[in-house]
Automatic annotation (TrEMBL), chain A:
InterPro entries (UniProt xref): Metalloenz_LuxS/M16, MPP/UQCRC_Complex, Pept_M16_N, Peptidase_M16_C
Ranges for domain Peptidase M16 N-terminal: 30-164
Taxonomic superkingdom: Bacteria
Peptidase M16 C-terminal domain boundaries: 185-358
GO molecular function, one term: metal ion binding
UniProt name for this protein: Insulinase family protein
Automatic annotation (TrEMBL), chain B:
Entries under Pfam families matching the protein: Peptidase_M16, Peptidase_M16_C
Keyword S-adenosyl-L-methionine: no
Record-given protein name: Insulinase family protein
Domain Peptidase M16 C-terminal span(s) in chain numbering: 181-360
GO MF term list: metal ion binding; metallopeptidase activity
Biological process terms in GO annotation: proteolysis
Species assigned in the record: Micromonospora costi
Keyword set, alphabetical order: Hydrolase, Metalloprotease, Protease, Zinc
Matching Gene3D superfamilies: Metalloenzyme, LuxS/M16 peptidase-like (3.30.830.10)
Length: 452, 430
């Protein structure tokens, strides 16, 4: 047996390039495109300022219902004919939202992009929104959410979010709403939300071989019949950390695992610490070799996996850790997870850990940004957060330049182990006493099915 | 109609120890995908050792003679790469995509665990990863509604002793009984260079890859007598439907209908692939149009049909639907059975066929749009069909399928008297 014993060093580094970005204004809307020469597939994505944050409190899930209702027929054809037209091009309409935006996209062989964008615009701008169809879609969405909420996770996520941001605020409630909020929507709410937010032109994102794409024609189709300008968006929301740590127990009788969600508020996306904070999160819970995964999975064998990260939107952010652990080790898994968060907050990161985190994050830019979908998503980031064309190249530099002092300072400033909300969704009868004895904090109960 | 589904160069070689090496150069992005297919999966597991191939996959990340425990992940992620591994009934594969300058690192790591795992394997590592896998079983199969459907469908589709009879995740009892010596023997038996295909796609030349492959893998000896898995190609029709009903904590009744069809890679399975798209892909599919939209008895997001691409025995076709509130399981099952039965009697229209082929074309090119997707595809075709270039034939074969062939296939493999039906009923609330 001859194996090479010495680990090889890297070869000559290849230069990093983000594809050339084209920006123009056509027919009252903005176009942002990336050129991917030779790529057979292309993606077009219409970005609208109609994210979950635009939904009124008490109307959570409007955007999700509207996303489905768009495909229930248009001014020109019924639902079956629309489905056949879209799928006959080999694509599907992908509609969804996050806190900051609503996105509708198609991915097709590049020679069919024009036809696909025409169909996309037909559904977005001129959906039929027949009241009976909208009511049925709403009921189906409520049922779909009930199905989803039967899984471990959504109830714990909702409990964490409500505790972090307050259920009186839209951002303190689930992004897609919950089964009850969706069931309670009126048909008219959906039609009003459409007329308010879906007739404004928005931004058309295109990723593909631009030599084979007519951007002006795509824009003309996407922006036809639109009107209205941009609407003011609020500034960052400051949410102070809690004075004390607490445990929220969500009962799931008979569960063989406990679902854990640990978190606290963190800065919004444009905060100057974004890069060092991301790296601190990576060392703590991002990479497979993170502190949390190493201890809780690889050393203790408590879980199949555990992750933690900072996530942020335009106005707010949160730090959160998520995992599923065997019921019998719920308390020790929590104690040790909180311990790792506290250790990272007080002691910072080491150069060895940071070296992995920074080159992983930087390298991921070349490894992950291959497909038209991934590039379209990167362009979306530029638009939503008002970033320059060379943002990804600069991000790479910033990641590689971050040092131990900066990242440790970000961990100290933005981790708050003593203010964590610890949500545990599991068999309360089995784990309650152990949680109470853990000394991690007072226990607050959430009854099954209740809305916080 | 494109005459090739793989318009990139492919070069292959075979090292003296039998390792097959496949290279497809593409300089578009500064990244390379490295993918190893080992021709061992859960179909090789004897009774009492279910779940061993997959547990072994976990052990491959825990260190080898020159690589410390957990160093594998650290080095790949520390180079900016992504990595993972998967096990299924047919095979086990290991893959990483790294910035191109780290290709040699990936080879060093893969060679070290191919040739030098056994001396580094300890009881402590086995015990820890056994716990991780048991947690994986809880998380993915036991703690979620309908999570055990696949575990229940396999024994209904394949008789005891058939290589696909048991699921890859294995049983808790077998996992508990796993001992170190068995795993040492498992590696010596199956993790040999002549039982693997190494594929590299991306920013590297064939000459460079072949030289590096020889340098890192060339010293690992071949193994002469790798035992084959039991032959599962012939599964006799039972002549009577298999029916199982489960009452569980689920939010709504759900029905699965499953049939054994043809092995992946055969002409018959190409027809089944197009048939499955006609039946259950997208809002224009028959299941959606009939059950979600027409009769409105199924939830729109949870209706569909798909083939499971297994190559060593007749592969399953699975159709599923979940009841809308107020709809009973029997009515749902009757609706699902009717739509499947009609594939043999109601001819597929040109529009239905075009729609299915357009969706399959996009799905194919999406798989081809990344270097890792291409590497996995080439590794599969080299391992299962002896030639990576055969990958180019799949898309044209789908596009050549006719409506008549779909009707014939439906009559042949979707007969009601050889059908598996698995039904979940919601527990009565106390």
């Amino acid at each position: 047996m001859t194996l090479i014993t010495a680990r090889p060093g890297p070869g000559a580094a290849r230069p990093y390039r983000f594809p050339p970005v084209v920006r123009r204004t056509v027919a009252g809307g903005r176009v942002v495109a990336a050129h991917l020469p030779g790529q057979n597939l292309a993606v077009a994505l219409l970005l609208l300022d109609a994210g979950a944050e635009r939904e009124p409190v008490g109307k959570e899930g409007l955007g999700g219902v509207l996303a489905k209702a768009l495909e229930e027929g248009t001014a020109q054809r019924d639902a079956a004919a629309y489905a056949l037209a879209v799928e006959g091009l080999g694509t599907e309409l992908v509609a969804g939202l996050d806190w900051d935006s609503f996105q509708v996209s198609v991915q097709v062989p590049v020679d069919r992009l024009n036809a696909a964008v025409e169909l996309l615009a037909e559904a977005v701008r001129t959906p039929r929104l027949d009241p009976a169809d909208v009511a049925r879609v709403r009921d189906d969405e409520a049922t779909a959410l009930r199905m989803d909420w039967a899984n471990p996770g959504p109830r714990a996520d909702a409990a964490l979010r409500a505790d972090l941001f307050g259920a009186e605020n839209r951002w303190g409630r689930p992004m897609y709403g919950d089964p009850d909020s969706v069931a309670g929507l009126d048909v008219e709410d959906v039609r009003v939300f459409h007329s308010e937010w879906f007739i404004r032109p928005g931004t058309l994102i295109v990723a593909g071989d631009l030599d084979r794409v007519d951007l002006d024609a795509l824009a003309a189709a996407a922006f036809a019949g639109t009107g209205g300008g941009p609407v003011e968006r609020g500034g960052p929301i400051q949410t102070p950390p809690r004075a004390e740590r607490r445990i929220i127990l969500v009962d799931r009788p008979g569960s063989v695992q406990s679902t854990l969600r640990l978190g606290h508020p963190s800065p919004h996306r444009a905060h100057p610490d974004h890069v060092p904070m991301t790296l601190a999160g990576t060392v703590l819970g991002g990479a497979f070799t993170s502190r949390l995964n190493h201890l809780i999975r690889e050393v203790r064998g408590y879980t199949y996996g555990i992750r933690g990260d900072f996530a942020s939107s335009r106005r707010f952010g949160r730090f959160a850790v998520s995992s599923g652990v065997q019921t019998a080790v719920t308390a020790p898994a929590l104690v040790e997870s909180v311990g790792e968060i506290a250790r990272t907050q007080s002691g910072g990161v080491t150069e060895e850990e940071l070296a992995v985190a920074r080159s992983w994050r930087a390298g991921q830019l070349s490894v992950e940004l291959q497909t038209p979908r991934a590039i379209a998503s990167a362009l979306t980031t530029l638009v939503v957060h008002d970033l320059p064309d060379d943002y990804h190249a600069r991000l790479r530099e910033a990641l590689l330049a971050a040092d131990v002092e900066q990242v440790s300072a970000a961990a100290a400033a933005h981790l708050h182990a003593d203010s964590l909300t610890l949500v545990v969704e599991g068999d309360a009868a089995v784990i309650r006493d152990e949680l109470a004895a853990s000394g991690l904090g007072d226990i607050v109960d959430v009854a099954p099915g209740s809305r916080r | 109609m494109p005459d090739s589904g793989y318009p990139w160069p492919i070069e292959t070689t075979r090292l003296d120890n039998g390792l097959r090496v496949v290279v497809s150069e593409d300089r578009t992005a500064p990244a390379v995908a490295v993918n190893l297919w080992y021709d061992v999966g859960s179909r090789h597991e004897p009774q009492g050792q279910t779940g061993f191939a997959h547990l072994f996959e976990h052990l491959m990340f825990e260190g080898s003679v020159n690589v410390a425990k957990t160093e594998h992940m650290k080095l790949i992620q520390g180079s900016g790469g992504s990595l993972n591994a998967t096990t299924n009934p047919d095979r086990t594969n290991y893959f990483e995509t790294v910035p191109a300058e780290h290709l040699e690192l990936a080879f060093w790591l893969e060679a070290d665990r191919m040739g030098g795992l056994v001396p580094a394997l300890t009881q402590e590592t086995l015990d820890n990863q056994r716990d991780v896998v048991k947690n994986e079983r809880r998380q993915r199969y036991e703690n979620v509604p309908y999570g055990d459907a696949w575990l229940r469908l396999l024994p209904l589709l394949y008789p005891p002793g058939h290589p696909y009879h048991h699921a890859t995740i294995g049983s808790m009892a077998d996992l508990n009984a796993a001992d170190l010596a068995t795993f040492q023997a498992f590696h010596r038996t199956y993790y040999a260079p002549n039982n693997a295909v190494l594929t590299v796609v991306g920013d590297a030349s064939a000459a460079e890859v072949f030289a590096l492959a020889d340098k890192y893998f060339g010293g690992i000896p071949a193994r002469a007598d790798i035992p084959p898995a039991p032959d599962g190609r012939t599964v006799p029709a039972t002549g009577r439907p298999a029916v199982e009903t489960v009452t569980a904590e689920v939010p709504a009744p759900r029905v699965y209908v499953a049939h054994r069809t043809h092995p992946f890679g055969s002409a018959g399975y190409d027809v089944v692939t197009v048939l499955a798209a006609v039946l259950g892909s997208g809002r224009g599919s028959r299941l959606y149009q009939r059950l979600a939209d027409g009769e409105r008895i199924a939830q729109p997001d949870l209706v569909g049909a798909y083939g499971v691409d297994l190559a060593h025995a007749p592969a399953p076709l699975i159709a599923t639907a979940t009841a809308r509130p107020g709809v009973g399981a029997e009515r749902l099952a009757a609706g699902l059975h009717a739509v499947v039965d009609e594939l043999a009697t109601v001819p597929v229209t040109a529009a239905e066929l075009d729609r299915a082929k357009a969706l399959l074309s996009t799905a194919w090119w999406r798989q081809m749009s990344t270097v890792d997707g291409r590497a996995d595809t080439l590794g599969r075709y080299a391992t299962q069909f002896g030639d990576p270039a055969k990958a180019a034939e799949r898309l044209p074969a789908w596009l050549a399928v006719t409506a008549e062939q779909i009707a014939e296939a439906a009559a042949e493999v979707l007969a009601a008297d050889d059908r598996v039906t698995l039904t979940y009923l919601a527990e009565e609330k106390p």
